[in-house]
């Protein structure tokens, strides 16, 4: 993904955003060199 941007992808949870670890969940992620990383710390509200 371009710097400063992210996409939503269904990936294995690591416990981020209070989602139980090990399930597949749609997270905001960045992708680089064939790897993905969950974007930490985004605000959660009713819309999200």
What's the layout of helices and strands?
Blueprint: E1 7-12, E2 24-32, E3 35-38
Antiparallel strand pairs: 1-2, 2-3
Domain Lactate/malate dehydrogenase C-terminal: 4-47
Protein name: Putative malate dehydrogenase
GO molecular function: malate dehydrogenase activity; oxidoreductase activity, acting on the CH-OH group of donors, NAD or NADP as acceptor
Describe this protein's structure.
- There is one protein chain.
- With 48 residues, the protein is mainly beta.
- It has a domain at 7-38.
- It is 0% helix and 40% strand.
- It has no helices and three strands.
- A three-stranded antiparallel β-sheet has the order 1-2-3, with no helix packed on it.
- A hairpin with a 2-residue loop joins strand 2 (24-32) and strand 3.
- It is globular, with a radius of gyration of 11 Å.
- The mean pLDDT is 94.
Key phrases:
48 residues, mainly beta, three-stranded antiparallel sheet, 0% helix, Malate_DH_type2
State the helix count.
0
The secondary-structure element order is EEE
Helix-strand category: mainly beta
The coarse silhouette is globular
Spans where pLDDT lies below 50 across 5 or more residues: none
Question: Would you tell me the overall average pLDDT?
Answer: 94
Beta content: 35-45%
Which range best describes the helical content: under 10%, 10-25%, 25-40%, 40-55%, 55-70% or over 70%? under 10%
Largest sheet: 3 strands, antiparallel
**What would you report as the Rg, rounded to the nearest angstrom?**
11 Å
| Cα distance spanning the termini | 21 Å
Number of strands: 3
- Neighbour order of strands in the largest sheet: 1-2-3
Keywords: Oxidoreductase
InterPro entries: Lactate/malate_DH_C, Lactate_DH/Glyco_Ohase_4_C, Malate_DH_type2
Protein name: Putative malate dehydrogenase
Pfam families: Ldh_1_C (PF02866)
């Amino acid at each position: 993904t371009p710097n400063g941007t992210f996409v939503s992808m269904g990936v294995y949870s690591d416990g981020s955003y209070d989602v139980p670890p090990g399930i597949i969940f749609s997270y905001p992620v960045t992708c680089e060199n064939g790897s993905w990383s969950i974007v930490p710390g985004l605000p959660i509200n009713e819309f999200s």
